[in-house]
Design brief:
Belongs to the AB hydrolase superfamily. AB hydrolase 4 family. It is built from 11 helices and 9 strands. With about 325 residues, the chain is α/β, with parallel strands linked by helices. The chain has a single domain, classed as Alpha/Beta hydrolase fold, catalytic domain (Rossmann fold), CATH 3.40.50.1820.
Length: about 325
């Protein structure tokens, strides 16, 4: 058998395996003449096929494996956790990894998931530190990881004013450190809202958003019902039941407790987030209203088979994104 025939058989076998596996080249949506193109050209990963783990090609199996097994096996000890008092008396925190690196080492600031804790975010913290060698600052929102709640206020998507105070703390400790941002799932809402509000007035050099929701007013509609129900129960477990005395004066508490999915919860909990009505809450929290004012490089990663952060949420914004000079979406 000639070498050329052998290579053809080998290539055919590889293509067949990729077909069965569902391996594909990433799709990238961006402005072809925009500033982001220079960054994309330096990323060889975007020109290679993504090959999922063979036994985890099903998105539901993948998520359950990650949540029930993978998270439990990651061993990582944070260097320290700083508890911060916000200007209104509320409590947030920053969990540090790589704290003792040289002062001018860049810092990756992470905005976590909807129920994120230092424990649940260990894999991302570890991987970012390994890949970059940089310091990691995980910004914890109010009510997360059992933080005290002296002020009755939480937000599924965080608070840009709290984030600004956390960034001030980071910069006060490491004034010579360049800052980069990573938002995960619900944390992308906070990240993008902050970047849109601030425009060029931000210490971040670049940002990365993974598993985004885009428009928070409609994003929960497309969450798979099983995960929506399960995650709503987690919201009760972590943010409502442990703080029942805190919420005792909230008039809408019973409506919140009657929610059976994320969409219902998000529509009713606005008072807990510090707003008089749902419309005011949305105008203050939803990143989509300020999205087009983002001025720094931002890459968004959205799996096409994500049952929680659905790719359907991208569709209304695919064209506007491709008119922005500094934003790219990878699917």
């Amino acid at each position: 058998m000639g070498i050329s025939v052998f290579n053809k058989i080998k290539d055919f076998g590889s293509e067949l395996f990729d077909l069965v596996l569902g391996a594909e080249h990433p799709k990238v949506y961006y402005h072809p003449q925009g500033k982001i193109k220079d960054i994309l050209d330096k990323l060889p990963q975007l020109k290679q096929k993504y090959r999922p783990t063979p036994w985890l090609t099903n998105s539901h199996v993948h998520l359950l494996y990650f949540d029930l097994i993978r998270k439990q096996t990651i061993k990582l000890a944070y260097d320290r956790i700083d508890q911060l008092t916000m200007s209104d008396g509320g409590i947030t925190a920053i969990a540090w990894y790589g704290y003792n690196l040289p002062p001018d080492t860049p810092t990756v600031v992470i905005m976590h998931t909807i129920t994120g804790t230092p424990e649940s975010m260990r894999e991302l913290v570890r991987d970012l530190n390994r890949y970059t060698g940089w310091r990691i600052a995980l910004c914890l929102r109010r009510g997360h990881a059992g933080l005290p709640m002296p002020v009755p206020q939480i937000s599924l998507f965080g608070s840009t004013s709290d984030l600004k105070e956390q960034l001030n703390h980071i910069q006060s400790l490491f004034p010579a450190s360049d800052l980069y941002a990573v938002g995960s799932s619900a944390g992308t809402g906070l990240l993008v809202r902050y970047l849109g509000e601030q425009g060029e007035d931000t210490p971040f050099k670049a940002a990365f958003a993974m598993c985004p929701g885009y428009n928070t007013e409609i994003g929960f509609k497309n969450v798979h019902p099983f995960y929506s129900k399960m995650m709503t129960k987690k919201l009760f477990k972590y943010f409502i039941y442990p703080y029942q005395n805190t919420w005792s004066q909230i008039a809408s508490l019973e409506k919140v407790l009657s929610a059976t999915n994320l969409e219902e919860f998000e529509k009713e909990y606005f008072e807990m987030a510090g707003f008089e009505d749902y419309e005011t809450y949305c105008k203050s929290i939803n990143p989509i209203y300020v999205f087009e004012n983002i001025k720094i490089p931002l890459m968004i990663l959205n799996a096409e088979d994500d049952p929680v952060c659905s790719i359907k949420n991208l569709e209304p914004y695919k064209e506007p994104i491709q008119q922005m000079s500094n934003v790219a979406v990878v699917t």
